[in-house]
Amino acid sequence: MAAAKPPSASRTLRYADGATQFRLRLIVSLLSSRPLLLRNIRSDDLDAPGLREHEASFLRLLDRMTNGTKIEINATGTQLRFKPGVLLGGEIEHDCPTGEGSRGVGWYLEGIFPLAAFGKEPLQLTLRGITDGTSDVDPSPDYLMASFVPLMVKLGVGADDDVVPPSLKVTQRGAAPLGGGSVEVYCPIVKELRPLELVEFGKVKRIRGTAVSCRIPPSSAARVAHSAKGVMHRLLPDVWIHTDVHSGSGRKRKGGEAGGCGPSPGLGVLLTATTTEGVCLSAECSMNHNVDSSEGPLGSNGPLERRKMELPEDLGKRSATLLLHEIHAGGCVDTGCQSFALLMMCLAPEDVSRIRLGPLSQYAVVSLRLYKEALGVEFKLRVEEETGGEEEEEEEFGEGRSRGQKMVVCSCLGIGYRNMARAST
What we know:
With about 425 residues, the protein is of the alpha+beta class.
């Protein structure tokens, strides 16, 4: 397998399909030092064409993280020219927009993590906005800490004994839509990444989780945890789910940290399974406010607030089911982390990196096409059928379990990306 040559840095990346893969295209533009041109950004939307508020906010955040970046947006916001600069890092504070239709801070962090380790200085980022309640569309900070950060350590970010490892800390919760939360992120810099070898899954040995509630009765978080544990205890005994309750009063906790949360109510849960080979798989979900059930005692004539709220017990079962689906998929990272893992493999040294994934998500597939075009990296994909006897499968999962679950082993030669900002200091 020969290493592919990265495309010329002077060649502009041009796309005419609008805001598709907005963050990812900006990321590869910065990493490859290639200008980016996006056209037709919601040009068919007559009421609100062009960039959304959270996308413009993400551009402002990238501008503060870099030096020499040039951003040009036309009058209607339907065309964007982005000329990448040099990543700086350092101490940065940023306020994310809140309100109906806004994205959580996890949406911003998901785009920042691939860049965080390649700045001139370690990144110390403080984001304020929505931290919980958007897990259906955006990852929460807890999910990123449980899924993304361990993968970064495996790639060599903060893996040395004399370097502080990357961390993500929620200093104040803020549920959608009004937010009010705060997150502190620290990421050290590296000269270059390490090759990734992550193909052994092992066996699940423990499950940990956190149920978070904001401005709702404290018993709701306990009900979520109890329901999720009821499903997981059928499979293994080592299950522990912490309840993180916030009343919004702002009282001091035992550690001296400020409690409280934003003005919006919310309820969510994150579950993480750890295997004997060190693989971490996470799944999360938040309370669904659009459930219209007429089977309860209130019927269809009950109050709107009660009819459109998911029960905590259902939320706990849904989160446990999502985690079981991730375990059943057989990948060494969960579905939401696939694109990030593949991008970091592209940046690894010119050596073979391998990872075993479950069924590729649609986002991961289009990401592979982007990495080939922008970074010149092609992946070799090998499909594996799940092994194991039929009797054993039926005994553990029953006859309704789908046999022949397909897993994909992805391998590539990295481009040997180096942190040139650090090398020049």
